[in-house]
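Throughout this chapter, every protein is written as a compact record of paired, labelled lines. An example of such a record is reproduced below:
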Amino acid sequence: MAEKFQAVVIGGGPGGYVCAIRLSQLGFRTACVEARNTLGGTCLNVGCIPSKSLLNLSENFQKAKKLQNLGIEVGEVKLNLEKMMKNKEKSVSILTKGVEFLFKKNKVSHFNGTGSIASANEVLVTTKDNKKISLNTDNIIISTGSIPVELPGIKFDEKIVLSSSGALDLKSVPKKMVIVGGGYIGLEMGSVWSRLGSEVHVVEALNYITPGMDKEISSEFLKILKKQGIIFHLETKVQNIKNEKNSAKISIQDKTGKNSELIADVVLISVGRKANTKNLNLEKIGVSLDNKKRIKVNKEFRTSTKNIFAIGDVISGPMLAHKAEEEGIAVAELIAGQSGHVNYDLIPGVIYTSPEVAVIGKTEEQLKEGNIKYKVGKFPFMANSRAKTVNNAEGFVKILADEKTDKVLGVHMIGSHVGEMIAEMAVAMEFGASSEDIARTCHAHPTFSEAIKEAALSVEKRAIHS
């Protein structure tokens, strides 16, 4: 006998579990199907959460080694990688169990197994022991996330050739690590292992890092990472990777056509992610995909099959957990006849290195391309009291405002705590704030956030402290 539901969500990551909870809150009898043994998807299990744990712990390790320079005398600082990894695993365990608790609290039925769509009203769950469970449903929401992209002919073995998941689970600190790709994930992982003692090389085909980011921020970020000891090979392409017994041999070619080799203990392939739509049976039921194999949806997240919806990394847009969460809530409310909405112009992005990078809205390059006239206000953390007192004064805040209306169009920051500070700008921009609005808002002293006020003042060339 098939179980009957009003909504079945396939995928228990940030988009899926949030969607399932919201549907249940709205009165729908809801089930969530997840292939992993634990809920939370890539983000909680092998992505955002474990990486932030290691970024925090590795930064503390690095800071501890420098305490004597600040008048704090301690004994020799040693790394216990096993304990560090256990701490990471503890964080993951607490949070995934937290999602299980939320499902129970909100009466969401959880099915552990691989979900496929048998028809527009039936989801088939295949459990680990190969049992089949049929779920009849009025609505199906696909939220199966994304998987790392492999280079042609090169497979992840998670020992020498790593995906981001493998880079989070190394048993020892590699002497040398090569990262292919200069995006968010690769640079975060590179920062972790560089702090713990690896010689880290980044190979990037473009002449800059973090594609799509404001170029001025990208340039400053590159400068800081180089100062931290990470070695960059820009305008360089990977020709081949040979996985040898205890090392990887990476053949590269620079912009002049010169060929050379890098030998490393491990190589992290970090060239992007792709929609995970495998085994969903989409072709058979007539769900259309775009040219990047993502699921096509309309403004209501409906696929080409009316009662089947899709959210998160399987559809177009930035592959970010918070974007998927917003879509999960929006689609649940739309199914319930409410006015769910996601403002794609104001999705913040954060890189959790040290210093952090945080962005929202338009870059200068996008404004120029769109022939939009704008003003720029900048303020360096070097002139910020709090940043100076805690020895974290690298970076700056940059605000882009419309030349005529003064409406804030984009904010780009690099510095300590900017991953938290970006929320202020998300709220301000959601309500259509001008740089004048921000400049006239009282900010506590001494705080890092004062740099936002000063950058806003700088838009009209009236910053006080620089």
Residues 81 and 172 are 7 Å apart (CA to CA). The radius of gyration is 24 Å.
